[in-house]
Amino acid sequence: EVELVESGGGLVQPGRSLRLSCAASGFTFDDYAIHWLRQGPGKGLEWVSGITWDSGDTAYADSVRGRFTISRDNAKNSLFLQMNSLGTEDTALYYCARDPYPKRDIVGTTYYDFWGQGALVTVSP
Amino acid sequence: DIQMTQSPPSLSASVGDKVTITCRASQGISIYLAWYQQKPGEAPKLLIKGSSTLRSGVPSRFSGHRSGTDFTLTISSLQPEDVGTYYCQNYNSGPPAFGRGTKVEI
């Protein structure tokens, strides 16, 4: 059974940093691109970032480019999101989600076939 | 970037009713539209890909249809377990764009 479990969320002051993790199991992690998406309080879904199976390509939403960095460790079946210079607008539930197409060479635009339960990030003074 | 306009924002229907949710893309996206269901307190779950292909295990009362840049999700006979918020998502090009969601209540 495919499972994605996020961790690392919490309360942080504006301007500070936080690192999210996503632990994957139940599938061959290093075959698939994985993405981060977020959902602000009472808001809809927003794509944040994605990384290919081999870390050869990454992509970011304009709202986070230059502040967030996505990475992965295939040996540990793990995905990460380093978030710097956080602002109140980054307050959200952060999900990791899988691209269903294996071995894609570019992040590309895709849909998501499996999602984690989310990690809550609250940015507040 | 492509914008997705989803309607209605919310609806209330009775068990057994037919429910239709609409999503309009700001430009052509071919068939590259997905629908997700998000139950309260849960992560989104994929229902439909390719505008009309039902994911394995999704009940057949759910269906998707495309007409140009207009897409519909239909629940043929609403069940209590269908309560939640439904989102459409473009995956044709550019940053993945989601509709603002439709909250379905009974």
Structure description:
The complex is a heterodimer of chains A (125) and B (106). Chain A is built from no helices and eleven strands. Chain A is an all-beta fold and 125 residues long. In chain A, strands 2, 4, 5, 6, 9, 10 and 11 form a seven-stranded mixed sheet that branches. Chain A has a four-stranded antiparallel sheet with strand order 1-3-8-7, with no helix packed on it. In chain A, β4 and β5 form a beta hairpin. Chain A is globular. The model of chain A has no long low-confidence stretch (mean pLDDT 96). In chain B, 0% of the residues lie in helices and 49% in strands. The mean pLDDT of chain B is 96. In chain B, β4 and β5 form a beta hairpin. Chain B has 106 residues and is mainly β. At the A-B interface, β5 and β10 of A face β5 and β9 of B.
List keywords for this structure.
heterodimer, A: 125 residues, mainly beta, seven-stranded mixed sheet, four-stranded antiparallel sheet, 0% helix, B: 106 residues, 11 strands, globular
What's the topology here?
The complex is a heterodimer of chains A (125) and B (106).
Chain A: E1 3-7, E2 10-12, E3 18-25, E4 32-39, E5 45-51, E6 58-60, E7 68-73, E8 78-83, E9 92-102, E10 114-115, E11 119-123
Parallel strand pairs in A: 2-11
Antiparallel strand pairs in A: 1-3, 3-8, 4-5, 4-9, 5-6, 7-8, 9-10, 9-11
Chain B: E1 4-7, E2 10-12, E3 19-25, E4 33-38, E5 45-49, E6 53-54, E7 62-67, E8 70-75, E9 84-90, E10 97-98, E11 102-105
